[in-house]
Design a protein that fits this description.
This protein is mainly α. The longest helix has 27 residues. The radius of gyration is 20 Å and the shape is globular. The two termini are 17 Å apart.
Length: 324
């Protein structure tokens, strides 16, 4: 059994309650909506984000009904962003299953995504905490702005590593931070404990996105999304950013010119991804993840020893080693 399975087992009853809450929240009197939602939830992924809500509450106090409701709110908002992303990116499969827009159409998918957003806000209200509602509302803004910043950077060919980290802070780490903040708030944690957990979650989120970006440099059907998709959309991620700064390599200048083209062919994408691998970009990205992981583990280990504290350490290692 993998370490991730061990983590899930430690909060199995809470996850069952979470998924029951989500199913109830998304059930309607409309047969088409129910069919779409039921099909979508069959491939609901690893649920790392709601797990963070539950684990942080368990570490800092106890899991309450408000904790489960806030975890449901986080999961539904996250899935809303995925549904909308699939429309924007014209993605046909996710988690090796057809996307909502592939099975139905873009019009339906956008409406389903909006429905998930509204259901997320309703779940946040059920926590009875305006602080939780505020976290969800602010998160929605941050995630949207993160995507806009990424689009803007792609169009302007901004190739700064600092800009890259700013974007993944907004589009990924902010979500992980909101998860632990919701768990902390609903468990009655102190402001200091909440702040410390948010920094742990920030490291987790940055690691998660870097690992996700690495997938784009390899052909692997198990990943469940097209390889080279980031470059196709003009997004230059950490492995290639590092390689483009390897002025010691003879082809560096040509690669910098190539990546700035308005559109890239499949062969050109292949050339750039191969260059990133050959120039040590993948190794560099793993080294940055290790740095972030070590910072996060040092911070989580300031809390008293417990099975839940160990789960956060295991989660760092799972995120870095995961295959999809």
């Amino acid at each position: 059994m993998t370490s991730f399975d061990d983590i899930r087992r430690s909060i199995a009853s809470e996850l069952d309650e979470l998924n029951s809450n989500i199913s109830q929240a998304l059930h309607t009197a409309n047969p088409l909506m129910n069919e779409i939602v039921e099909n979508y939830l069959k491939a609901n992924g690893k649920q790392i984000r709601p797990m963070l809500v539950l684990l942080s509450a368990k570490l800092l106090g106890k899991v309450t009904q408000a904790t489960v409701a806030s975890a449901a709110a986080i999961e539904m908002l996250h899935n809303a962003t995925l549904i909308h992303d699939d429309v924007i990116d014209q993605t046909r499969t996710r988690r090796n299953a057809p996307t909502v827009n592939a099975v139905w159409d873009n019009h339906v998918a956008v409406l389903v995504g909006d429905f998930f957003v509204s259901s997320s806000l309703q779940a946040a209200l059920k926590t009875g905490s305006m602080e939780c509602v505020g976290i969800i509302a602010e998160l929605g803004r941050t995630l949207s702005l993160g995507e806009i910043e990424q689009i803007d950077n792609a169009r302007s060919h901004s190739l700064s590593e600092d800009a890259y980290f700013d974007i993944i802070q907004s589009k990924t780490a902010s979500l992980f931070m909101a998860c632990v903040e919701m768990g902390a708030v609903t468990s009655g944690a102190s402001a200091a404990e909440t702040g410390q957990m948010c920094q742990v979650a920030r490291m987790l989120g940055l690691c998660f996105q870097i690992r996700d970006d690495i997938f784009d440099y390899f052909d692997d059907e198990s990943v469940g999304k097209p390889t080279g998709n980031d470059l196709r959309e003009g997004k230059v991620t950490l492995p290639l950013l590092y390689a483009l700064n390897r002025a010691d390599l003879p082809e560096c200048g040509a690669m910098n010119l190539l990546v700035r083209k308005p559109e890239l062919s499949t062969d050109e994408i292949g050339t750039l991804t191969e260059y990133a691998r050959r120039a040590g970009g993948i190794d560099y990205a793993y080294a940055r993840m290790k740095e972030l992981r070590d910072k996060g583990v040092e911070m989580i280990n300031r809390f008293p020893a417990s099975e839940t504290r160990d789960s956060f350490v295991l989660l760092f290692d799972y995120i870095i080693r995961r295959k999809f």
